[in-house]
Amino acid sequence: MSLIPLFMLLQLHLVCARPLFPLPSKTSNEEKKTLQTFRPYNIAHRGSNGEIPEETSAAYLRAIEEGADFIESDILATKDGALICFHDVTLDDTTDIAKHKEFADRRRTYEVEWFNVTGWFVVDFTLAELKTLKVKQRYPFRDQQYNGMYSIITFEEFISIALDAGRTVGIYPEIKDPVFINKHVKWAGGKKFEDKFVDTLLKYGYKVRTQDTNQSYWEITSDDYLAYISNYVVGLGPWKDTIVPVARNYLMSPSDLVARAHAHNLQVHPYTYRNENQFLHFNFHADPYAEYDFWLNTVGVDGLFTDFAGTLHRYQELTSPHPKDETANSLLVKIVEMITAYEGH
Ligand SMILES: *[C@@H]1O[C@H](CO)[C@@H](O)[C@H](O)[C@H]1NC(C)=O
Ligand SMILES: *[C@@H]1O[C@H](CO)[C@@H](O)[C@H](O)[C@H]1NC(C)=O
């Protein structure tokens, strides 16, 4: 199974050069605080989907408010070729599609990556049709109060949310199931899903380097492959259990993947960190801070995909806070010196 997907090759930063295309952003880039680089990245997995239904504008806005450095999204395509933020190829688990009688006859069975899947597929709906649906929370044990409130958003709307943030917020988009999408969705001029994805990023001034990854985990994590990809990618995003294997819900000895990636000057951003006890291995005693401590301080990763950007932010602010404002800090030092001098007399 190719479990290290395309997004490992697509860490994107806003380019400083003025983009050729007018941005929808309301704030100018010059006055924005830049992306922090002094500590590992807080990457909001599908937005703050621990709190708000995944990949909605509200989930992304919450993540930004909570301090995420990057917002992550899965990209799929609609019947009419629009790129949207959505994780599953079917709408069943995270929307109210089942309540829409007008779409009852749209259920299908398709082969998706070697499995037959039955449901309402995004590729059978136009963007306008999808916009009539509402997104809901994936897990029953999470807050259900936002179900039915938010729509599916487009890739461009996602980009606008990042660009409109009051500080620089990176984006971390992943294209999903390109073979399946290209089979069901056709674009003018013979363009492929991957082309539309890259075109969209370029339009908004993002630098893009991309490559098809159709290799197995073992091929992708071999030293030869790491050396090869280090020429054009920033890092890899493996599932965390592949870095530190798990048995009977306890961590085993870490593999050498992080050390080998670092030796090739590649960052490692594992996924997915979740607060709930059903996702935490027993070593962490039901404490998400203990998990962050282990991955940041023992394993030494460079970024983490979390469902709870606010929790990771709070942990990082406690353990490696943003440097205090220089002027305020030096003023404080002066005051302390004055008091000390006064007391000395
Ligand atoms: C999916 O179903 C079709 C029709 O029943 C069948 O021909 C095909 O082999 C199935 N594919 C898989 C991967 O099970
Ligand atoms: C990926 O590999 C599979 C199996 O080798 C092949 O059927 C498929 O066409 C490949 N996809 C791409 C995008 O190269």
TrEMBL record:
A molecular function (GO) term: glycerophosphodiester phosphodiesterase activity
Swiss-Prot/TrEMBL GO biological process terms: glycerol metabolic process; lipid metabolic process
InterPro entries: GP_PDE_dom, PLC-like_Pdiesterase_TIM-brl
UniProt KW keywords: Glycerol metabolism, Hydrolase, Signal
Signal peptide range: 1-17
Catalytic activity: a sn-glycero-3-phosphodiester + H2O = an alcohol + sn-glycerol 3-phosphate + H(+)
EC number: 3.1.4.46
GP-PDE domain location: 40-316
Gene3D superfamilies for this protein: Phosphatidylinositol (PI) phosphodiesterase (3.20.20.190)
Enzyme superclass (EC): hydrolase
Annotated Pfam families: GDPD (PF03009)
Protein name, entry field: glycerophosphodiester phosphodiesterase
Originating organism: Eleusine coracana subsp. coracana
Species lineage: Eukaryota, Viridiplantae, Streptophyta, Embryophyta, Tracheophyta
